[in-house]
Amino acid sequence: MGNTRNRFLETLFILGSVRQTAGRIVLSTLFIITLCVAVISYMFYVPSSQEVQKLSEAGLKQTAVLLANEVDANLKEKQAMLKVIAEQGSELGTDKPKHLELLTKFQKAHPEYDNIVYSPDLVGATAFSSNGSPVNVADRDYIKKVREGSVTISDPLISKLNNMMVVVIAIPLMKEGKPYGFYAASYSIEQMAQKVDSVHFGDTGAAFMSMRDGTFLSYPDTSYVLKKKLSDLGSPELNQALADVANGTNHMFTYVENGNKKIGYMGVTEASWVITVFSSEEEIMRPINSLLHLILKVGGGMVIIALMINILIALRIVYPIRKLTNGIDLLAKGDLTHRIPAKGNNDISQALLAFNVAGEQMQRLMLEAKDLSEQVAESADQLASGAEQGAQAAQSISEAIQVMAESSERQMYNIQEGSLASESIAAQIDDVAGHTATVASLAAEASGLSDQGAASMEQLAGKMSEMGKGIGELSSTIGTLSKLSEQIGNIVDVIGGIARQTNILSLNASIEASRSGEAGRGFAVVAEEIRKLAGQSMESAEKIAGFIESIQFETERTLRASEVTVIQASEGQQAGETAGELFARIRSSIQQVAQSIHGVSDAADEIVSGTSTLVSSIRLISESANEAAAESQNVSAAAEEQMASMEEVASSSAELANMAKKLRTQIEQFKL
């Protein structure tokens, strides 16, 4: 039990220490896996959160814009209905009973209008409601725009009849293109406000509507409606967003409400009402955060599993290494018989096998060294006796060689003088041959360059010819393009004529729809949209006609430029042919010069070859004499050295015998 505990503690120490191989493997692997999990989590979270936020912002924006469009469509529909009644009433002049009868029928057919007022003039002081009772609306703000002949919608207010939030839609009565009276109808916007209040974006997101000054038209807390403004919420971000909308800038914004960060978007209706849609950022990011937590949990589990696997692998690596270390310690102490069991075919097993092989080779080497040391001791004794005989023979050789050296010195002096003269002649001829070879090389290089120049000029002439053909084809293509532009211009004229005819037909359809009364109300709106589209088509056709004129002008300029380029290309081709003829003449002259230089160079080479042979022969003789003299001196010196060496060999053989004895003593210290 104690050994197991000690081994466990030793293992923990090894795995936790950066100085140990296993500890380094485990800690480095743990760091890499943790880093990979962190990087993967970050790479997933950041793009995903950004994409989710973009989609949520797009959803908020789309919801706000759709609500604003729905409010605009509702108000436009009510305006169109009143406009049709006003067109019918304009034909009644100042006949009060007929006006009131017309309004009474209209109100019965459309009960969503709370009250309809008829004013025979533009002052409004003598106006009448649809039931015939007189009313005074001269102090209303919308009277000013009605006097200008414009359709107007008042700011929302609370109706005195039913205590509901309404707006007043005022339509002028026209006679000969000038206003002389007006109809004014109060229309409840409670349903529109409820529609906005019913919008929910997720669990915490909602929408509300306000006027441009921030006065609430709808809000989750109904006590805020027409009594409080957006600034009463105390959010600088909301106030800034409302100010940006007033300046014509719509964008996403964030604000904090009760400690919760929210994201919103403001859409604007044509009546200058602002619809705000918002949602909690925490709700938007909740799916991504939940998925991130799951990834971190899975990553943590993977780290733990990888760590356990890594520990097992590290232990399987470390234990064989520690056995190898122990074996190396025993080897250092002189035990050449220790072997380590090796299993498997991995790198560590190969290292253990290599240790065993090294131990066996060292053991065998030391056994052989032991045998050799004994043989060296015997050879040293024999070498001492042979050294004495060699010293006597060396003395006789030294005396005979001294006589030969004196004769070799005289012969060497005469040969050196002849060698110097022949070397001087050979050097001068070498210079002549060198200059001739240089001139020949330059002539060959000039001939090659002239060949390249002639070939380049031929290629240039071909390219100039191809360029002329290409420019001719370009001119033909540009002419075709000009004709096509004229045809497109004719088509654009036809489109413009169709747009003008469509505009006239849409005006006639609007007139017929107004005559049809209530049954033609929807058709009148469609006819108005067709007239707008016809106007846009006429404007686009005029722009296209302008573009085509510009294209035709630039096409003519390009055609003239291509014709000039064709002429210049033809002139360039003629100049290239003339230059090619000049290069051919230069090449012929250079080849003649090169042939003459080659003849001179060949003659110089033959002279150099003969002189070099003579100099080489003299040098060989001189070198042989020098070598003979030097060798005789060397032999004499070697004989003397041999005599001294023999004496040293005799003393060294004795030392070698002593060293062999010491070597045998050292080898006996190993366990073989």
UniProtKB/TrEMBL annotation:
Its main location: membrane. GO terms for cellular component: plasma membrane. It is a multi-pass membrane protein. GO terms for biological process: chemotaxis; signal transduction. Residues 315-367 form the HAMP domain. The chain crosses the membrane at residues 25-45, 294-319. Coiled coil: none annotated. CDD domains: HAMP, MCP_signal, PDC1_DGC_like, PDC2_MCP_like. The keyword Membrane applies. Keywords: Cell membrane, Chemotaxis, Membrane, Transducer, Transmembrane, Transmembrane helix. Residues 386-657 form the Methyl-accepting transducer domain. It is found in: Cell membrane. InterPro entries: dCache_1, HAMP_dom, MCPsignal_dom. Belongs to the methyl-accepting chemotaxis (MCP) protein family. This is Methyl-accepting chemotaxis protein. It comes from Paenibacillus rigui.
